[in-house]
Amino acid sequence: MAKSVVIYSTTTCPFCIRAKQYLKDNNIQFQDIDVSENHEKAQEMIKKSGQMGVPVIEIDGQIIVGFDKEKIKEVLGL
Question: Which fold has domain 5-76?
């Protein structure tokens, strides 16, 4: 079953771009939320992660802060 993947990001963050490319390369569908455009979602991200930095990746409710490739791989079971 496909996992629910949400990435909180900005268009200018290099780690966000890499994280999204990594997900695409592995054929993982994800919802991309641009927190620089959406203040409400930025607050939601901070509440979930305790972090203001991006990317914050949520996979089935599990929060990964930053582009931690090993952790992403582990949580997605790649």
Answer: Glutaredoxin (3.40.30)
- Cβ atoms of residues 35 and 60 within 8 Å: no
Q: What is the DSSP string of the chain?
A: -PPPEEEEE-TT-HHHHHHHHHHHHTT---EEEETTT-HHHHHHHHHHHS--SS-EEEETTEEEES--HHHHHHHHT-
What is the domain partition of the chain in residue ranges?
5-76
Q: What is the pLDDT of residues 9-51, one digit of tens each?
A: 999 999 999 999 999 999 999 999 999 999 999 999 999 999 9
Model confidence pTM above 0.85: yes
